[in-house]
Amino acid sequence: MAVKRRAGGVALPSFAKVNLGLEVLGTRADGYHELRTLFQTVALHDDVLLEPHPREVSVRCAHPGVPLDGRNLACRAAEGLRRWAGIRQGVTITLVKRIPVAGGLGGGSSNAAAVLMALDRLWRLGLGPSGLHPHARRLGADVPYFLMGGTALGLGRGDEVYPLRRQVRAQVVLAFPGPAVSTAAVFARLDRSLTPREDSHTIFRFISNDSEGASTYSALTNELEEAALQEAPDLADRVKAIRGILIREGAQLALLSGSGSSYFGVFGDAARARRAHRAVRSAGFGAVRSRTLTFDQYRTIWWRSFATLSRARGWVQGREGHHGDHGRQGHPRR
Ligand code: C5P
Description:
By secondary structure, this protein is α+β, with helices and mostly antiparallel strands. Helix content is about 35%, strand content about 25%. Strands 1, 2, 3, 4, 5, 6, 7, 8, 9 and 10 form a 10-stranded mixed β-sheet that branches. Strand 3 (about 55-60), helix 1 and strand 4 form a beta-alpha-beta unit. Helix 1 (about 75-85) packs parallel to helix 2 (about 105-120) and helix 7 (about 235-250) runs antiparallel to helix 8 (about 270-280). The model is unreliable at about 325-334 (pLDDT under 50). The structure holds cytidine-5'-monophosphate (C5P). Cytidine-5'-monophosphate (C5P) binds next to strand 2 and helix 4.
């Protein structure tokens, strides 16, 4: 979709993630599940275009699978932040989707985090990642991760995020066997067989092992994979075929991402990744070749984007009204 930018419009990348490992330890009192997960940003991204509007917050997107009403996370992110900061100005959000929708790659959550980070700058709220965290976690369990990016540990619902000293640098092949799978349905199915436990070891082993190489990924699993394949039985054969190709072509790790249905392979070198990508496509599956982004790379890309945001015209300078009763979550700097 060609996007025409109007005065004051800014464009930002919004990256996808994969889960290099995901362990489900049990259910929580709030109905969510206690997780240990390894988040990893990949270079595949959507574009998020923001244009100032005198009053309204709205979202546009040509992709038929993206809701354009109050269910849209990017729209809710802008509405929530605007209400909290007491800003009357609106924003028109245009999403150019490349990340598959509902594919376990965090596209919607990433779009919402990009909107939060950009509006924090454009409206000069001065919240930064820690001030935006409560806004992000209200939107969804994966949203806080995208305030940080890179290789990170996710605890709790996945919304307590810690960047890791060990940042993965690797080639990634993402395969899209479709159809979309409902995250809530996958977790509900998992509950039938879940044995709660206190701790997990494979992810902690990965964190404490500093050396690169195939063996460091070997113990990592995605504990949602079995439930996702039971939830979408059509997927099982396709996933088996894709996994077979990725492993045969030398993937160091091949897993379902999140609750699926995207499946990915991690490769140590570009030649193998290229061959695997070609093989997955020749077998009739949609696929893209990408690479990981480290915490520093993610931050640098954002800092560059911030420089363009600070030059954008037509945006209000700071808050116009009151916070209501949300003051405890951090105050916009004046
Ligand atoms: O937070 P988010 O809306 O992305 O989560 C989607 C669904 O996934 C939740 O409604 C919940 O059913 C399930 N979920 C969970 N435990 C988590 C994260 C998500 O049960 N830690």
